[in-house]
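As the next step, I selected for study a record pairing a protein sequence with its backbone structure tokens, which the following lines show:
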Amino acid sequence: KIEGAAKARSGVDKILIRDAVVSNADIWSTVKMVKGGIGRGGGAMNTFDDKWKEYARTSTDYEQCESFMHLHLGIDAKGLPEDLWPQFAVVRDWKKPIESEGNVMIVAIPSLLDPSLAPEGKHVIHAYTAGNEPISLWKSMQRGTPEYEA
């Protein structure tokens, strides 16, 4: 649908672009979804098309990083320190490299900056590992199996 909204699980097959592409998908999936730079407006569009084609052509040169574990929570704000930072890192062992398995977790509490993101008296938290979990741990797992659920 042109000029429409993309919704979760809506089965987007193609993204039509004008001036830029903003995507929450990985680079390889985004390149597959963008089928040429169909837009409106003369020369600037042609320049963008050329840049996009070059980007898409070289996208397979990127190496996939290790996996991320994401955790999204809603919590009660009661008892949290008033000087709590809206984003911080938790490092298990500073003697290890940050990319060591399970060594770093990033925590963001965006509702500290914008209270409208959570109901009154609550906060939202997004915590994630910093791309340091080996994909091989998860590659063979099937959702719904006891191994996966553990």
About this structure: Residues 1 and 43 are 24 Å apart (CA to CA). Confidence is low (pLDDT under 50) at residues 36-46.
